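Final report, Chapter 2: Outcomes

The project's central promise was a pipeline that accepts a single protein chain and returns its three-dimensional structure in a standardized token representation, suitable for archiving and comparison. That pipeline is now operational. To close this chapter, we reproduce one record exactly as it appears in the project archive, with the input sequence first and the structure output second.
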Amino acid sequence: IGTIRLEDPSAQVLVRHDGSVNLASLAKEGEKSVPQETSSRSESPQPQISVGSVDILNGTVRFQDRSIEPSYGSTLDRLNGSISGLSSQTDKKASVKLDARVDKQAPLSISGEINPLSREKFILLHLAFKDFNMSSLSPYTGKYIGYKTEKGKLNLNLRYDIQGNQLDSSNRVFLDQFTLGESVDSPDATSLPVSLAIALLKDRSGEISLDIPVSGNLDDPEFSVGGVIIQVLVNLVAKAATSPFALLASLIPEGQDLQYLFFEPGSSELTKDTVGKLTTVAHVLQERPGLRMDLAGELDPQQDGPALARARMLKRISMEKLRNEGTQKGEENPEITASDEDYPKYLEEVYRKDLRQLKESDRDAVRAEKPETGPEAITYMEAFILKDIRIKDEDLRLLALDRANAILAQLVQAGKVEAERLYVVEPQPLKAESKEPTTQPWVELLIK
């Protein structure tokens, strides 16, 4: 055949309420295939077929899905192009070039090579689709996500390579300004955090880019291209709930864990490492303006308790030096701490004051146990002072809040992150199984 020319062809594709498709009724039902070994037709030589070109001019395809409420409809028109060089010969490939538009505004192009008349499957097609307004997809997003689509444009760049029974494909999806609208009460809506996933993926320009490769054996009854793509998207949204930082890998240096920021026991001062990580956190928040973040300090009595007690002891020792040397120098508010040289002297002053609080009999027992001099004497006096310093739960709570507030201040001042996107939450007691005993106290960053 030289040329097949189709002028103004039209088709109606209808998904009925029960999910069946009208075009499926074109196939005969109940017809059984003849076994290969008993079919005389299979033994006859296959006909040689070639078609110079199939030309399509101004085609139209109307699609309606009545299985969803409200129903969805779309129209593909201005379908023009050709399929050239169709042949039943295995080594021949037909060239495909088709163009159309969807809903009178989104251009669609299909190009590549196919060999549909050969026994050996071969498809190498590229599909490009851009600027499709997504608000019309509200029936689907309302049913399966629980929200209407307020706005957004969809762009697709698909490549499908089928040779024999093997499929290799790439599915690149670009969403521009995709925004969910009002909620929809749907029993089929997912409970996964779709809104969080969108905020994690959407950059500061309001754009989302996804690349979903799919490969597999087409003869495998368990394999489905659509099923694989849907599962990838479901896993993506699930990861937003369980490992949100994993979705931000392109913005985070490899191997850097930003979920936990560590502090020295008993301190709320930011370490050099923590300041470096906060620079990355600020960058993430700047690039993902839809994200909010909770800052949750932990209550760790095992590490912070002894460290706070020692800090209070050192402060008493410094104050003892202040009373002696600061007053002598006539200074009202000197910055003064006990050096290694005078530490034993003022430690013993504090020790003696605490010793005076005991009964005479108890004092004699303590004096008898205390070593005279040397490191052993220092250790003994420190332990004696520390045993009477009580660290309350409220002290630990305030320390945890101080740490979270220090992080917030660093992000706002140095990182230039909007304060209204950051929330300091009530500290929680540390669970025994949540970390190794040697790990430093932390503040956890929770993306919302």
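Archive annotation: The longest strand covers residues 166-183.
This record, like all others produced under the grant, will remain available to the consortium after the project formally closes.
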